[in-house]
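Human: I'm a chemist; would you kindly supply sequence and structure tokens for a protein?

Assistant:
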Amino acid sequence: MPSHARLSMLTLLLAAVSPAAAQELDGKISFNNHCRTCHSVRPGDNRLGPSLFGIFGAEAGQVKGYSGYSGGLRGFTWNDAMLERFIANPTSVSMSTNMVYPPIADRAERRRIIDFLKSLNVPE
């Protein structure tokens, strides 16, 4: 297939993706780039860190089946502000956190991750 035909096909495929689906895909890519090594988004799939499925709006330190929480990650709810603060600098939320990764300095990147995590919440 000539390169201009492949480009046209790619353009058509991208045009078919809704803005919401494209945004979720961007968030999933950001999550995978920064979080997937230690966290899953599948319910009950706890790894080095807890599953982050349904984390938005949940009480910190309460993922069922995960017992590896570090000190200080209790007594608050994971909302936009807390996720933003934690992803930017985990020790600003808990000095004794086990979360060690390069800080995500780009606010837009953090926002994509937060929006992706929010999309995983399903109504009960």
